[in-house]
Amino acid sequence: MTIPLEDVRLEERSEVTGPWQTVVWNDPVNLMSYVVHVFRTYFGYTREHAERLMLLVHHEGHAVVAEGAREQMEFHVQAMHDYGLWATVRRADT
Amino acid sequence: MTRVRMTVSALEAAHLTDIVLQFTDLLAEAIDGVDDPGVARLVPDGYRDAAEDAAEFRRLTQDDLLDRRRDDAALVLATLQRDGQTRRPQDLDRADAEAEVIVELDAGAVAAWLRTLTAVRLVIATRLGITTEEEQDDDPRFGVYNWLGFRLEGLLQAIED
Q1: Mutation test of the interface with chain B: which of A20, A22, A29, A51, choosing the one with the most B Cβ atoms within 10 A?
Q2: Integer CA distances (angstroms), A73 to A19, A44, B125, in order
Q3: Among A51, A59, A90, B117, which has the minimal tally of Cβ within 10 Å of its Cβ?
Q4: Would the CB atoms of A82 and B43 count as touching at under 8 Å?
């Protein structure tokens, strides 16, 4: 049996890149209720989880809202920017 | 998500129309390449401490984000029209200004309103130099900013109910 070449490449790549994170940063403009709304609507998080993340952003200045492949995190960050939140991509080990 | 019915005065609808039209002009300039710090806040860096990654991310996402702001704003303006006409404050006579306007929003329009109100507040906040959550209350220049926040909060409550 032969393994399709594409699958091998994907696996190698995920080992090399490791997990990445989507980080949302606090800002003085966005309403707390809006941030909760975004986390619930976009990520599908429960109200409790979304509120916990929002409070982390508010009190700690930032929160990790998702982890995974780099491409996926970039997709999330663009989505956060679309909602007017400031988010960045970073390596999970930083 | 449910539909939302909002009642506002014709004057408030006209002021909101005026603000969103100004925002649309600003976006058009930005899409043409004019730098504006307020618009820059709508397309922030996607990476910190990694200038090359941030530049590449911006290259891939900025135009799309600004196009979406423009499309959202156009949808908001459409929902604010009366009798198929866009009305700014100067288009109203005094009797007309007090009239009630019902704004009906479907799920897509609600989402466009939320994002547009947020985006306009971000631009205004940049212009006013708002850097903390505390300094926004008494200064009269914050009137429009706070009013947009009030409408945003109201919309969020309406879709929660």
Answers
A1: A29
A2: 9, 16, 27
A3: A59
A4: no
